[in-house]
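Fold these two proteins, one after the other.
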Amino acid sequence: MVDVHPRPAAGRPTAAPGGPRGRRHAGRREREHREEVAGLLFVTPATLGIAVFVLLPMVLALLLGFTDADGFGNVRFTGAENYRRLLTDPLFWSSMRTTALYVVVFVPGVYVVALTMALLVNGALPARAFFRTAFFAPYAVSLVVVGLVWRYMLADSTGVVAQALRGLGVDDPPSFLGDPGWALWCVALISIWFFVGFYMIILLGGLQEIPTETLEAARLDGAGPWQTLWSVVLPMLRPTTFFVLVLTSIAGLAGLQAFDLIFVMTQGGPANSTSMGVFYIYQQAFKFNNVGYASAMATVYALALLALTAIAFRITRGGRFDHAD
């Protein structure tokens, strides 16, 4: 008769089920099982939220991109017609150029200003708590309120900025929101002013992770403030820098935060100079009822974002940095 019971490995003692080691082993497995269950319970709400509010709309947008849906229940399959249309749509490519210009200003602007602020409040600045709160304060305000306030401040004749410039001797101040050459700059600079407090907190966390012994060793070796910043702080801040740059790039390309400002301040004008990609998609979907065409543009937009994010992770090996490199 064949013995089906497992045999213990030679030279390897096994715990008896009822012995002390067996009870400890069973207790460890039960604890691990409870931790696995707890972990699943923690991630389940977030997973369901992402599935319902992110993945499902993405799939629906992908499907609607092959139709002429108008948002009122009229849906007809049109194949790749929407994708052929966006290739020849000058306003679509104009919105892409506007988005690219916005990102070129927004991403480095946010990083440089936020890093400068983080270095200030991480150093021997008097009243650091006050300045940390003051720098972060704009981020606590609704972006719609920020847009309304800045719209009145930048008004042509009665705005605070125009009156201040006249007080400084500028007889004919520019129309900040009415001139195509100024409007996008204003939106980008207001976006930077609004978001730097949030990214300052992230960079401040990265700065505080740098061991003080390392900074002290650099100082004892004769490194000055700029040399310490360039040779010690910035290399050790690379993971946080990567995170901030990826986050700001995605935020800038998606244009979700700029959408509120553009909607309140310029409505995409003047002459479509502030019509970023996400705003043009909104106009097509909810102003002109071209839901199918807007879905096709949104799909292209999402694929471009995924591709850029994948490239960034590929270059940085998934955001892992080895200080020995």
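Now the second one:
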Amino acid sequence: MSSIRLVLHEFRFTQKVFWRNPASVFFTALLPVIFLLIFATIFGNDKIKTLDNLPTTTYYVPAIVTLAVVSATMVSLAINLTIAREAGLLKRGRGTPLPPWVFIAGRVGNAIVISVLMVVVITIIGRVLYDAPIPWERLPALITTLLVGASSFCCLGIAMTAIIPSREAAPAITNLITLPLYFLSGIFIPESEIPDGVLSFANHFPIRDFFEAFFSAYNPNTVGSGFEWGNLAVVAIWGLAGLLLSIRYFRWTPRH
């Protein structure tokens, strides 16, 4: 069997496992939608004056898209790979003829497909329920941001497994890292309500840059193509660091 067919077979298997797991579907696919509905209900049609009177609901579409992609890639991979490692599945997998990279490729492919699906779903919900414009004229910028971000956060998710000691600790550690960054980066709270010093601190981490790149693509007040190459470069550098750390420290055997 060719390598491509092996990857596709592993990808289909991972898709079945994901959609048959209610917890994965809820936390990865449904929770971002719930967040969008909650924030849009709370803030209604308020305008953000510092962002040229941008409707708050329009602001939250790229914000929740950012959350959904990070959740589907970094968070999901860090938790699921740790659980598979501690259950001995990764070790047993290495004893089969299946190449290890095919196993990882199948899960990364699943994470990227879920990310694309979530971008589409949240964008449509934003358009239908809140009249948030779909950025057709900046679609290349949106797709580029999605591909760079999803790939980078997949690498970071795999690298994160190196610091997670057990399956029980996986959700706690991933949430401990991501939840504060969501708040600091303007995902949950409009950035107009966040002090400049806090935003400057958040700029040291990739979630803030990823959100800014998405925001530029979605913002109807954006002039030009919407590409934010500086933000995308920061996200890509973080992804490259994650890739190198994954190659060096990723474990196939349980710690306990």
